[in-house]
Write a structure and sequence with these properties.
By secondary structure, this protein is mainly beta. It folds into 2 domains: about 325 residues, no CATH class; about 150 residues, Jelly Rolls. The chain contains 1 helix and 45 strands. Strands 31, 32, 33, 35, 38, 39, 41, 44 and 45 form a 9-stranded antiparallel β-sheet that branches.
């Protein structure tokens, strides 16, 4: 088809490329894109449960309007090329797709643009854009963390339009068990724009990986792509088995398959990985072609997952698809409500323990007037411990007055002002106060400004009876878990 049209449509193609470039300049996120739904550069075995620490950031669920670019600040630092980035969508319509990856990265149908995409990833920020006609993604949620190094990292590799590049690795083992991910570098920085492929008026943009073996992986860049001048491919082998593994599931074009995983808990904390396989002899094998959804000439290709709940997940294959004969879902559960050993930047590598009772996902928020606030009661392991850090999950961050109380609500230190600045987890250093505890203590803050900041609240997990509203000498126990954590070191 491309050859037959080439001579007569060169001016049209040039105009389309110019149009896409103008859209990029207009709102830095408005041209088409596509990302594979779950073939992400993460290592579930290392980051199992997405442990909330200095190397992890979660935006929580955010409302986003059609046509709206949203720039979020994460401040993780380090090299963003090594980040794991996980962007989910939520369809809030009755009978809709629920939590899903339909049209993830962007999908054009008859001049209408649907889905969301991320781009311009830096060591402090990421931009998410909801396309102007989208109906599937009223809310978005971004998780970013710094995983352990993968077994294979290609580094940045130059690509050529319309060409396949084959990379050699030495991971070995069974490729079915790999976690394969890919990032682009192009006109919109580090991105997943048009990842998997996207058609605009039948002209194709983006790139995808294919034919993953125990020693090679290939990447194809579409002929008119703007976003993947360079690609970076990662392969990891999880150390821990998944908590749920569907195995390879045959799925016919145009059908939906609902799988029962039965894991329960809060699905927002799951790590979900999808593998796609083309079983045709000489086909694409393990691949990410058209993942999330793709339309050209009124035919629909690709596959995705949707309607994730605490017991089920649904697979969907588009009606004309040719490369997703089988799908495999693996889910890792979070490790939560445990004393988690951490190795954090800028802190000693001694045996640090994080005390946590929330599940790491913001479900709602709470705020109070000046002089009032919130606290969580902590019970360290047996023995003597030094409290070295407070962790507060905040929205609209503002300075707060930090308190550490004993079991009977008496201050253990002179309260002080902490200048919290980050949406999400804020670490407050307590190491210089030499706070020694051998039993229950409380940690929290009081407001210095009416109703701001707001504190993250976990309402989905069973409440632990450890969260309190604090109003002077009056403490009221609350039925949810406040997102306040303590990091301690054994003495």
């Amino acid at each position: 088809m491309r050859d037959r049209r080439a001579l007569i449509l060169i001016p049209v193609v040039a105009a389309l490329v110019l149009l896409v470039l103008l859209l990029i300049a207009a709102n830095a996120a408005a041209s088409p894109s596509q990302q594979e739904p779950a073939l992400l550069d993460l290592r579930p075995a290392v980051e199992r449960g997405l442990r909330a620490n200095a190397n992890y950031w979660d935006s929580g669920w955010l409302d986003i309007n059609p046509g709206q670019p949203m720039t979020l600040t994460h401040n993780l630092g380090g090299d963003p090329a090594g980040y794991a980035v996980d962007l989910w969508c939520q369809d809030t319509r009755p009978g809709g797709l629920g939590v899903h990856r339909r049209a993830y990265g962007g999908m054009e149908v008859g001049g209408q643009f649907h889905g969301v995409a991320w781009q311009n990833l830096t060591d402090t920020m990421i931009t998410v854009f909801r396309y102007r006609n989208d109906v599937f993604a009223a809310q978005i949620r971004v998780r970013i963390w710094i995983p352990d190094p993968p077994e294979y990292d290609s580094d940045w590799v130059d690509t050529t339009l319309g060409q396949v590049v084959t990379l050699t690795h030495d991971v070995g083992g069974n490729p079915d068990d790999y976690v394969v991910g890919m990032k682009f570098s192009g006109t919109v920085g580090i991105n997943h724009r048009a990842c998997g492929g996207l058609a605009v008026l039948n002209d194709m943009f983006g790139a995808h990986f294919q034919n993953v073996t125990d020693s090679t992986v290939s990447v194809f860049r579409f002929p008119l792509d703007l976003f993947a001048q360079q690609v970076r491919v990662y392969i990891s082998l999880p150390d821990d088995p998944p908590d749920y593994d569907s195995g390879w599931v045959d799925i016919n074009a145009g059908t939906r398959v609902t799988l029962t995983h039965g894991l329960r808990g809060n699905p927002n904390t799951y790590v979900v990985h999808t593998s796609i396989r083309d079983t045709t002899p000489g086909g694409l094998g393990l691949n990410s072609r058209f993942a999330g959804g793709f339309e050209v000439l009124n035919k629909f290709y690709g596959a995705n997952w949707d309607n994730l709940t605490n017991t089920t997940i649904t697979l969907y294959r588009q009606p004309h698809d040719r490369t997703a004969d089988q799908m495999r879902i693996r889910i890792w559960l979070p490790v939560r409500k445990l004393y988690l050993p951490l190795m954090l930047n800028n802190y000693p590598a001694a045996a640090e323990t994080e005390l946590a009772y929330d599940d790491g996902t913001l479900d709602t928020t709470a705020s109070y007037e000046i002089g009032k606030g919130f606290a969580t009661r902590f019970t360290p392991p047996s023995g003597s411990f030094r409290v070295v850090r407070a962790r507060l999950f905040l929205q609209d961050p503002r300075p707060v007055q930090v308190h550490v109380w004993d079991a009977t609500h008496n201050d253990l230190i002179t309260p002080f002002t902490a200048n919290t600045t980050q949406e999400g987890w804020n670490d407050v250093d307590l190491s210089s106060y030499n706070i020694i505890v051998s039993g229950d203590f409380h940690l929290g803050f009081l407001h210095l400004e009416d109703w701001r900041p707001t504190l993250g609240v976990d309402t989905n997990s069973p409440a632990d009876g450890r969260s309190y509203e604090v109003d002077g000498a009056y403490w009221e126990q609350r039925p949810s878990d406040y997102m306040i954590r303590a990091v301690v070191v054994e003495q």
